[in-house]
Amino acid sequence: MRETSVRPWTRPHDWAEVVLGVVAVLSPLVLETSTAAMWTLIVMGALVALDGLASLAMPGMVYGEAIQIVLGALLVLSPWVIGYTELTGAAWMSWVVGALTIIVGAAALPVANAAHSRTVGQH
Fold first, then answer.
1. Position 68 pLDDT exceeds 90
2. Rounded mean pLDDT of 75-101?
3. What is the mean pLDDT of residues 110-123?
4. Which DSSP state fits 6?
5. I want to staple 91 with a disulfide (CB 3.0 to 4.6 A). Which of 16, 22, 79, 109 is the partner?
6. Is residue 41 included in any domain, yes or no?
7. What is the CA radius of gyration of the chain?
8. How many CA atoms lie within 13 A of 123 on its CB side?
């Protein structure tokens, strides 16, 4: 994993973030949602996926993993804040994808730190 963490497009944590984001973006196609729930899932999912792609392209970007953790927390909180807890499928999608995003982002943080420390000396 040490060699993989420095090479772009090879870190499994970041690929997991991209997949989680895409799942959130596509979920309104199969779940009952309100307009607010639909746009929350689409926008938050797109942000998660885009940040995952950025982390894949630039493995030494440590703040990308911190952003994933924040986005995951926002996704977990969104059913209560936006008010779609009564839409069970959409709410559970937010909670599960958000929690998994937090877990994957936290797991990727040490890997990104290691990649960053390896690339700092190369500048």
1. yes
2. 98
3. 66
4. T
5. 79
6. yes
7. 15
8. 6
Q: How many CB atoms lie within 10 A of CB 33?
A: 21
Reply yes or no on whether the pLDDT at 83 is more than 80.
Answer: yes
Give the structural domain span for 37. 12-115
Taking alpha carbons only, the member of 54, 77, 56, 42 closest to residue 6 is 56
- Residue in 73, 104, 96, 83 with CA at minimum distance from that of residue 39: 83
Q: Which two tokens stand for residue 55?
A: 């982390």
User: Among residues of the chain, what percentage have pLDDT more than 70?
Assistant: 88
Structural domain total, the chain:
1
Domain contains 7: no
Q: Is residue 57 part of a domain?
A: yes
**Higher-confidence position of 10 and 28:** 28
